[in-house]
Amino acid sequence: MLRVIAIYFSKFFWGFKRSAEPHALRRQI
Residue 9's Cα: distance from chain center in Å? Predict the structure, then answer.
């Protein structure tokens, strides 16, 4: 059960990181 939660959490974390990176790059430019 904990493994499933960890997988979902990692997917959500990486998805949030990917969506946040483009905004940071645009702000620098």
Answer: 9
pLDDT tens digit sequence for 7-19? 999 999 888 877 7
Total residues belonging to the chain: 29
In single-letter form, the type of residue at position 29 comes to I
Q: Which candidate, 21, 18, 22, 23, places its Cα nearest to that of 10?
A: 18
* Whether the predicted model's global pTM rises above the 0.70 cut: no
d(CA 20, CA 14): 10
